[in-house]
Amino acid sequence: MRGRGLVIGVAVVLVGLAAGAAYVTRDASPPWEHEPALTVADALGGKDGGAEGYTRAFEPRELHFPEDHGPHPGFRTEWWYWTGNLSTADGRDFGYQLTLFRSALASEEKERASAWGTRQVYMGHLALSDIGGGRFHATERFSRGALGLAGSRAEPFRVWLEDWSAEATGDGALPMRLTARGEGMSLSLVLEAGKPPVLQGDRGLSQKGPEPGNASYYYSLTRMPTRGQVTVEGRAYEVTGQSWMDREWSTSALGEDLVGWDWFSLQLSDGSELMYYQLRRRDGTADTFSAGTLVPALGEPVRLSREDVRLEVLATWKSPRSGTTYPARWRLAVPSRGLTLDIRPALADQELPVSVRYWEGSARLSGTHAGQPVRGRGYVELTGYGDAPQRER
Known about the structure:
This protein is mainly beta. It contains two helices and 24 strands.
């Protein structure tokens, strides 16, 4: 599971309906002067979240590529999610996040007289962490899936939101090119296939709660060699590095007792990767359905349960704008695999104050794995911290 798409996908629907606009673009580069439109609980409250008429994920099914890189319109929400860490030849570091969401306004298509009529709304988030320059930039965008403004297809692979896009550079879906721009920043990157897709959960079925159908289909591309260009405040930088792609589609809701999650995607120097998400309950404990995957350099991925992972917060950071306090350093351990990591944000301030405010940013890590020292880079996402009173952790 990468649960963030559920929250923000529903946010697309609510904001799109409220605005009634063809599209909205909002730049979130500092200073920010607006409040988020929704909380995590607002976006996903309720037992079924209005799932009637949509397809549900009840059991594992065989995934097919490139078809499953493309859209799944029978499901209410889906998302294409890329994060990565990049560097110039002289060592200037950047992190990036590009997210494209599709959310259905209704479970069945109805004939509409207007060319603007559609049951699909798309939203995008673009963020660039200029680690060398010590600045964070973020932009949010919405558009109807009509008149070519936004859409998605499997062959040839393409998903787009106005002039933001991810598309195949040849046959199939890989390699793919990401292109997006916002005020004071842009990126144009080519992502190679790297490792094969990792099926999260039970053969790609990621269970989100005890109820049947409260699940998603979810896979990841955990180490994609990346090259291209990022531009910050008018200056272009040639970069290389590694990206991570998450792909998920769902018609499920966040459980009533959950307030958010801490999500980690980590790429280690020994060629292994780790994904782990910890769902947080209202009483501050980790939910039973917290889970993850350890991907070795060679061999089959290893599923991780909540009991397999120890996550400890070592420091916090308080946003000067929202007043929200977030975790800001962690010790993550998988004792059965001899893995212990110290994880730190590459920049303290990587908070996105968009429709659902959350913190997501580049991170650095060090530790040991199977008795050997490791280092690495990754991304961390923190949601729900500004939606409820803070408690001692």
